[in-house]
Amino acid sequence: MRYALLVQGGPYSHQAAHSALRFAEALVRRGHLLETVFFYHDGVYNAARLLAPPQDEPHLGDAWRRLHAEHGTRLQVCIAAGLRRGLLDEREAARHGKAGASLEAPFELTGLGQLVDAGLSHDRLITFAP
Amino acid sequence: MSHESTLPEGDLLVVLRHGPHGSLWLREGLEAALVAAALGQRVSLLFMGPGVAALAANQQRGPLEQKGTLPMLEMLPLYEVESLLAVDEDLDALGLAPERLAVPAERIAPTAVAALMARHPLVLNF
Amino acid sequence: MILHILNRSPLDSRVYRQAMMAMGPDDRLLLIEEGVQGALPQLVRHFEEIAGRLFVLREDLAARGLEGQCDDSVLVVDVEGFVTLTEEADKSVSWF
């Protein structure tokens, strides 16, 4: 089946992102396609470029990037939720006159329409929230 | 009170369970609803628990000039979002009689919520 | 059939009542994260009406030292079982 996940919890503050990643890994083990992870609400912080957890803790940013690299999962970040929380790619940083981007590929800023599309076009959408 | 046969069907049910100003849940839930509607999806809104407070009249801007969410609710008809429902027990718990609502919503019994969920292929909870 | 997913403890919030309110007669409820507390014999009475349709996630029990302490009426699943539950349901709704 084609799955999408909606992640609404920030990294480390709540278990939501850990739960989503654990579920994601089980999904692909069972042969499902995890096509899209959409980050919304405080979930957008998962895309922060400079996450630097202690070495003995799981690195959530790296785990998302691995999912993308190994399974082609799209990592979509709501642009409205991201901008108001300071998550800007280079283009948005330039547009807002900020020095430096706080979000980079494979995470991509995208509109909420992508969430609606993911919800309606995939076989399943599973939400993980704080 | 609505009977099951009169409950709306649609593509997306957005459930709003948080009141205005206290968090971004309500605003971001409404943003999702508006975008879906703008894309031509049939959207229903269900206000539940503290979320029914979103419907109250006389809401104001926050102390830092936060806009609040009432202007978004008032825009819903422009997006052809016409199915606004609220759990009657929760409205009553906050004393939100129909004349105290800024935006009219259909009162539904708690027992109708399950049927409403079943009538929408996608449910987003905020 | 809808799979409802709840991550809040009945000790902490009334969200479990919202989830129960929204459940149809065949719907299932999976307790995850702090929600697994609801599977303990002391709290499971809150879910009496859905006996046989209440599931709890093993990994979240184990992480909290609660594995083996659930009420017998609760069905324990691992994360693969969580995936199966989502396969079997038409859709899922998360409560938090």
Overall shape of chain B: globular
CATH topology of chain B: Hypothetical Protein Ychn, Chain: A
Total helix count of chain C? 3
Distance between the termini of chain C: 20 Å
> Would you identify the regions of chain B where 5 or more consecutive residues have pLDDT less than 50?
none
Helix and strand composition category of chain C: alpha/beta
Distance between the termini of chain B: 24 Å
Q: What is the helix content of chain B?
A: 25-40%
Structural classification of chain B = alpha/beta
Number of domains of chain C: 1
In CATH, the architecture of chain C is: 3-Layer(aba) Sandwich
Order of helices and strands of chain C: EHEEHEHE
Q: Return Rg of chain C in Å.
A: 12 Å
Compute the average pLDDT of chain B.
95
User: Major β-sheet of chain C, in short?
Assistant: 5 strands, parallel
If classified by CATH, what would the architecture of chain B be?
3-Layer(aba) Sandwich
> Percent of residues of chain C in beta strands?
15-25%
Report the major sheet of chain B: 5 strands, parallel
